[in-house]
């Protein structure tokens, strides 16, 4: 009930505040903050790829942890449902419908079809090249799409190291929709060079001061700006994704270690990720500084979405959107009252706010919801006065500088003490689009100006203050076309009804997809008619639109769909949400296509309270026991993390229990690797053991403590002759010049039906049609956009002709 009331109230607020929202999200803004984010994020992605490069054969090739015969079932899933596994059926698609299933699944990877170690090396090399091109801003849109496709394709073939990769996946998908190459890029440098040669570029010391100039007798075609404006909505999505990441992570930290403040102490005492031996330092400072830091980080993460409130209040205040009056104001108050009621209902049943009975955190969550209910009720009572109060808060406690400053200290300290990977600085890079961008641009300009004063050649627009594109230039979009509130509210209610029919009525994904398509079709028809009626009319805007009417509708639809999908995907597993699993299946296809699946629970609900190591033993055919080569950790060499992040440690954590099925696949891999390195002779068995010891007391000797306290437990014992997928595949033997395996020696185990006919019978026959219908709607929007573009160009030409005649 609370969730339904929340959804309906939010739809109403979006419909009522549509003018302010579109002026904030669909405006054109300075490209430089996003460009700095692109560079910083790209550098972090390159470092992350270099971290996993040595492990690429293990993670992604047919000689690694998952052999090729298991890929259709284990990794390909819906994409390869119509493909043979090469054992029971010939490899490849069985018919045209199988190809349609592969295309519509969105789960694409070239490594499904060519995953030899050489093929993996080529794939990784192309990915590194694409990521470097993205960082430099060379063919930026193409390189962003290529990076996303290749990165997703890599992880769809192997994810045993999965951890911070979800940060890269989430932000990389959003970069593909942005114009992040409009500044500080090879693309913009080439564009400016070509325009300067033709005398069409506005220079900082010339007309327009680098921000562009309208056509004039001196420049009949006008002068182009150095920094063209770009859409704001991709940056807003990046900020929303960051807030969701922090909030979900913070509220997942509900265990006793976080409540007592001992979480950071436990993390620093565990050798898995710490860069240095922190034992003596912890003993010197005592527990209270670490407790205060633990509580501070936990609540900062939980409340980080308040940054979005501050940013939205500031942007709405500058947008010039008219305040709600009369019935609209009363309806908005009713919607805020609905949100207050929904939060109060949820707060009244704290036992439904935790995953399992007796789990800590229920009281905290209920109290937070009660505070939220009080705030929403206050907004409902204050009405139009709430906007002024929000702007005052945005200039004070909700100002980004406080929240981002704390986050910067946290991440820098985290990076100095813990080797958790490049995703941490990648997260920090997102601050550039959360309010830190203008400061970073000004700091860069001052630094480059200082270099210029010392004789270093620096372009004028980089060392001098240069504004972005003049918003008054005639080519900017300022049309008056706008969807009415009834259309937006009606579309939202259609989607909510589709979701209810899908979940409660049992119609499933068909009702959900049909509702979105119906809403999109209705808005497209209404928007097209309104745009034709309002063609030629303009509206005064502080910042111009980023798109024409068709582009604004497409961008707004994408923002709405992606935000809804992320919020549904992040629904907590509470007893009060019995349809959570079914709701996640509705948005699952989009989450899979965008490759933005997310589980934010770092050191949650509690950090580990013990030190664990992985020990592998191989028993050869003669019964001799061997330690297997360079295993991630060895009992006689307690791991001391290096400054460089060792991804083996994350794999070992996953094998040791974070992902239970990996232990079996890792043991199978060791069987095959031993055979590959010993002329095809398989070992007798492989034994995986977990060595566990309680965390040491601060100041104690770590090696002596572990040696004296360790306990061994068997994770997996496999007989390499009888274990499925533990034998070398024929193509691997042939690749290394080994003799063919004896007949009948290969073992397999399958969960999916053997034939494509059996698997096809379980599929929804309409599943591939929904993407085609969505493509048809996009085609209609594209045709409308071309029509609008021609009309916009014709209007500009007409105005220019009038000016010449005048």
TrEMBL record:
Matches recorded under SMART domains: HTTM
Localization per Swiss-Prot or TrEMBL: Endomembrane system
InterPro entries noted in UniProt: HTTM-like, Sporulation_signal_mat
Keywords: Membrane, Transmembrane, Transmembrane helix
Main localization, broad class: membrane
Membrane topology designation: Multi-pass membrane protein
Domain HTTM-like residues, every copy: 26-353
Listed transmembrane segments: 34-60, 111-132, 328-349, 369-390, 428-444, 483-505, 511-531
Cellular component GO terms held in the UniProt record: endomembrane system
This protein's name: HTTM-like domain-containing protein
Species whose genome carries this gene: Nannocystis exedens
């Amino acid at each position: 009930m609370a969730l339904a009331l929340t959804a309906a109230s939010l739809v109403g607020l979006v419909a009522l505040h549509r003018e302010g929202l579109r002026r904030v999200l669909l405006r054109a803004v300075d490209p430089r903050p996003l460009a700095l984010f692109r560079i910083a994020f790209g550098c972090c992605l390159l470092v992350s790829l270099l971290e996993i490069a040595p492990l690429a054969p293990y993670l992604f090739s047919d000689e690694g942890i998952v052999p090729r015969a298991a890929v259709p079932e284990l990794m390909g899933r819906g994409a390869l449902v119509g493909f043979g596994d090469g054992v029971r059926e010939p490899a490849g698609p069985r018919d045209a419908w199988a190809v349609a299933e592969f295309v519509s699944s969105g789960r694409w990877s070239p490594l499904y079809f060519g995953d030899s170690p050489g093929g993996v090396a080529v794939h990784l090399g192309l990915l590194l090249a694409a990521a470097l091109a993205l960082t430099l801003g060379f063919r930026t849109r193409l390189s962003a799409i290529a990076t996303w496709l290749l990165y997703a394709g890599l992880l769809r073939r192997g994810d045993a190291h999965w951890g911070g990769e979800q940060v890269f996946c989430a932000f990389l998908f959003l970069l593909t929709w942005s114009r992040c190459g409009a500044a500080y890029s090879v693309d913009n440098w080439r564009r400016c060079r070509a325009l300067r040669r033709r005398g069409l570029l506005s220079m900082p010391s010339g007309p327009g001061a680098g921000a562009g100039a309208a056509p004039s007798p001196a420049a009949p075609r006008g002068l182009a700006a150095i920094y063209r404006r770009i859409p704001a909505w991709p940056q807003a999505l990046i900020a929303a994704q960051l807030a969701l990441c922090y909030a979900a992570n913070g509220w997942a930290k509900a265990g006793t270690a976080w409540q007592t403040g001992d979480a950071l102490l436990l993390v620093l005492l565990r050798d898995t990720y710490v860069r240095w031996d922190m034992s003596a330092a912890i003993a010197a400072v005592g527990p209270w500084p670490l407790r205060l830091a633990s509580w501070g980080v936990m609540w900062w993460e939980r409340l980080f979405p308040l940054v979005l409130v501050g940013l939205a209040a500031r942007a709405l205040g500058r947008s010039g959107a008219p305040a709600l009056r009369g019935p609209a104001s009363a309806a908005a108050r009713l919607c805020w009252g609905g949100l207050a009621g929904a939060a109060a209902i949820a707060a009244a049943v704290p036992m439904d706010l935790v995953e399992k009975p007796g789990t800590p955190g229920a009281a905290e969550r209920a109290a937070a919801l009660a505070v939220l209910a009080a705030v929403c009720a206050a907004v409902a009572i204050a009405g139009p006065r709430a906007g002024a109060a929000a702007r005052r808060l945005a200039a004070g406690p909700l100002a980004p500088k406080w929240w981002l400053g704390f986050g910067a200290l946290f991440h820098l300290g985290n990076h100095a003490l813990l080797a958790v990977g490049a995703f941490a600085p990648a997260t920090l890079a997102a601050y550039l689009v959360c309010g830190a961008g203008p400061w970073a641009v000004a700091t860069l300009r001052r630094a480059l100006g200082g270099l210029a004063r010392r004789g270093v050649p620096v372009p004028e627009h980089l060392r001098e203050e240069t504004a972005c594109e003049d918003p008054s230039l005639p080519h900017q979009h300022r049309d008056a076309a706008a969807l009415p509130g009834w259309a937006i509210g009606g579309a939202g209610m259609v989607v909510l009804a589709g979701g209810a029919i899908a979940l409660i009525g049992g119609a499933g994904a068909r009702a959900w997809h049909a509702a979105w398509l119906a809403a999109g079709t209705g808005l497209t028809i209404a928007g097209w008619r309104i745009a034709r009626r309002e063609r030629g009319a303009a509206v005064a805007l502080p910042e111009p639109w980023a798109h024409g009417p068709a582009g604004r509708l497409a961008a707004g639809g994408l923002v709405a769909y992606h935000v809804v999908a992320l919020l549904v995907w992040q629904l907590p597993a509470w007893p009060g949400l019995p349809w959570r699993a079914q709701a996640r299946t509705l948005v699952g296809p989009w989450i899979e296509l965008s490759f933005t699946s997310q589980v934010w629970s770092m050191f949650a609900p509690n950090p580990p309270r013990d030190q664990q190591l992985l020990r592998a033993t191989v028993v050869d055919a003669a019964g001799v026991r061997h330690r297997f080569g360079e295993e991630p950790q060895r009992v006689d060499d307690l791991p001391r993390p290096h400054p460089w992040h060792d991804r083996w440690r994350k794999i070992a954590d996953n094998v040791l229990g974070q992902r239970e099925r990996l232990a079996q696949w890792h043991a199978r891999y060791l069987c095959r690797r031993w055979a590959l390195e010993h002329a095809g002779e398989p070992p007798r068995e492989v034994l995986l053991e977990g060595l566990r010891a309680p965390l040491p007391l601060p100041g104690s000797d770590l090696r002596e403590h572990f040696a004296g306290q360790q306990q061994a437990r068997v994770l997996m014992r496999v007989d390499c002759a009888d274990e499925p997928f533990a034998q070398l595949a024929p193509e691997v033997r042939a690749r290394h010049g080994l003799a063919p395996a004896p007949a009948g020696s290969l073992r397999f185990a399958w969960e999916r039906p053997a034939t494509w006919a059996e698997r096809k019978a379980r599929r929804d026959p309409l599943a591939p049609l929904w993407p085609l219908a969505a493509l048809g709607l996009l085609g209609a929007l594209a045709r409308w956009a071309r029509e609008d573009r021609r009309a916009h160009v014709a209007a500009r030409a007409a105005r220019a002709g009038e000016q010449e005649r005048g």
